């Protein structure tokens, strides 16, 4: 029986080549897209779970409650890890974790810039990172210990065994001994680094981290499997009270734990509550995958039920000779699964061919894991879901036809019954509603990204060069600056503690006349050199920039407009201000500029002068049109003054674009999948238009004999389909507005949703539908009426 069903299914597939190809191609495109999305989702969900200890790993987070708002981040006191290990028996391992730092590593004439972290001695035991040489217990125990990756060991020493015990000079300053070589980290690991350094060295280098009132690095814990996280969280809320004595009584810091497995996906917090993150994109593309499968399956249902008149007599004969209802359902479901299986085979091939491009777009390293049972479970799931979805209604519809009516010649009346037509029209509307949602989403994402890329940040990021203050350049900054200003192509030079694009330094240690002692207010802060405003091209709205002509500027301050507003001074210039118990005066107010992501609002900013502290970011402004010459001048001087360090630089505008890399990737993927959704929907529309034209061949012939023009015939065949598209636009627009509005809430600075976005999306859908339908309509309209009338 099974063989007989398969043989009939194959014959029907071959007999109707056009409709079979439309169905197979539509299903294949839908399943290819879904398969790629599922691989991407699987990779996203696996980030943070790559280590065997992952279920027991936690990050210590801080809620900083001040001035009526709650700010959540991973910054903690540098001495927190050891104290938690002493105070909580549930803590198996604890380690501090500094932010990523770039250092120059040298072995003989082999010199390169690498990224690394300072970490606690428990790091390797906590994460279970495989060591090729060395011991997890002693790898980072002593101050001069250095652990490097396998790749770094091969670069400098040839292999991991040779590297053990060898010396590497860091920043042409200190020699470190290689005490461990760890396996290269997985590409999707949330923490990427080439080397690790001893934590005590970090605390010695940054003595302020030994104070409970200061926070900067992260803290990671591994708990016992039986640990009660809720009870630990309850104790952590008040853990810092009494320890951070310098913190205002009105500034409350509460600690809590976030599972390592959730840190990547749930990174956003709003007013003390988890507020999404990458998980939003996972949910978004899960929905997109479902949409694409639905659109492809609807094509199958529509074409199968539309062509039911061709199968009606077959059903009638089978029922007369004794075929059971269930047997017919199995037969038609078998046909659906045969077509789905062929489409799935094509989908796997297309997915394999498109993976390199998909990886390039998503910055992933995905592969088709054909050797893993999980992959085939996903493939089987796709087959069952898609085949069942596509074949269920046609099977039920065809098997329910009454043999008496069919054999009496009432098949067409069944085919064109009001219920069947209404269902098909509803499915077409549903397809285009989903397609419209994706088109509008693409337009909104594109406009938001365009807004981000073109928005004024309050300073001129174009043609602004940033280099690292290191080695001799940092120690001889004044010489470097003066020599550089004498060289051709250089307009101005300054330096800044933080990057212009990210400032995570915050403090509540700002005091001024009239400050309410019952309110703790958080300010961002940084230090800069002379010519800061000139180099950044930030606008000074009141007062002046720091100047060497004023000796007292070493204790004075610049503030931004948000800080001026929060201080409450009518005329802030000349008013007293104290930061970190260092009294001074405000010498200037600069226009608000963005020193963090557009996801967050501009915060009050206090800037102090530190001309001779130069281990930070040196900012260089080339003269207009002389960037190439300026870069040559900078490189020549760097090589002259700092020969032990490789020359490197970056443009601030290029770094700015990297900040929104995730949004750019999402925008690109949204565009691609929206185009695929329209293509799949139009394949179904093309098939329905072809079938409609075939069914009305005689009517078209009669109309042409009676004088109907080509335009009349095209209009006749197209208007019903266009009505459905217009209905879909009306239904989809409010849904699209709501979804787009929700996504835009993630940005503090965002575009306004405009009517033209929905009109544009509707126009695109209509134009594509017209092009799809008109091909078949014009083909039918141009047919010789004599030939048309002979068809029946």
From TrEMBL:
Domain of life according to the entry: Bacteria
Transmembrane segments: 21-41, 284-304, 336-355, 375-401, 422-446, 665-691, 721-740, 755-775
UniProt entry keywords in alphabetical sequence: Cell membrane, Membrane, Transmembrane, Transmembrane helix
Gene Ontology CC annotation, any one: plasma membrane
Keyword Transmembrane helix: yes
Chief site of localization: membrane
GO MF assignments: transmembrane transporter activity
Signal peptide (UniProt feature, chain positions): none
Domain MacB-like periplasmic core: 20-238, 433-635
Membrane topology note: Multi-pass membrane protein
Pfam families per the UniProt record, alphabetical: FtsX, MacB_PCD
Subcellular localization: Cell membrane
Domain named ABC3 transporter permease C-terminal: residues: 287-403, 672-785
Protein known as: ABC transporter permease
Organism: Fibrisoma montanum
